[in-house]
Amino acid sequence: MNRFLWLGILLSVLLVGLWSAGDPVQAGQSGSYHLVGEWATFPSGIEFGPVASVAHTADGIMHVLRRGEPAFFTLDRNGKFLRSWGEDIFDWSHGLRVDRDGFIWATDGRAHEVMKFSPSGERLMTLGKRGVAGDGPDTFNRPTDVVVAHNGDFFVTDGYGNSRVLKFSKDGKFIKTWGTKGTAPGQFNLPHTIVMDSAGMLLVGDRENHRIQIFDQDGNFLDQWTHLGAPYGLYMAPDDTLFMVEGELDDLLIVDGRTGELRERIDGLELSHWVSMDPEGNVYVAEVHDGLSVKKFAPR
Q1: Whose CA is closest to 212, among 178, 260, 252?
Q2: Is the pTM higher than 0.85?
Q3: What's the structural domain count of the chain?
């Protein structure tokens, strides 16, 4: 076989590989995950309703932050409803995270607050001034998300009104902030979600700029990925696999969180907003609509 034919075969293989990574997989049909049907069990008369975000504890307990009353549902690792809680707390529920110690962090995008709860649901800390929008060290303007570092420092994306990231110590003391509105590296147009990789680098979903920006914990810009679309929700798995909800196309993207390489794209979502993973590797996407508004994808 001559060398030109070999080159042609090699080029064809490379093109097929690139096409396969970027071409959407219909949810439930093929790919490395499949859609799980009616997986949650509720008492009569209770359903998810519009869900802003979801998060999991290390032992698989699932917390659901709803846009409605009560704000929180808690489900066991098998999807069985355990309890509801959090009445009269939120004006507009937005982001939800559970840190490695089981503490629950949530943001309110209209009351301009960031809250920390105990694993049992007791409110332990509130940052921001309820109903007061601002851009100082003790105020927010529609904050969106929180990520907690290994040493307890935490970072807040702020958000719809401001275009910045704030860093706080474990006890809530302001450390620093960075970012202004714009398109240059280190600027933001709606920092909507934030995660941390295994090396401690921060990945910020710069939603309206259709990119993910990467920073160290001092706010120094390191890199940006502009090929993945609009990041609505991000989740970083322990092995640095990044799951991203692309909210404009309503796709779930599976990405190498170290390089930004797109591995797989799954479509079939509806008003998708947030993403999380349980300890067994099942992936959950929160959708802001009535009905079965948390989709579960199980690995094949």
Answers
A1: 260
A2: yes
A3: 1
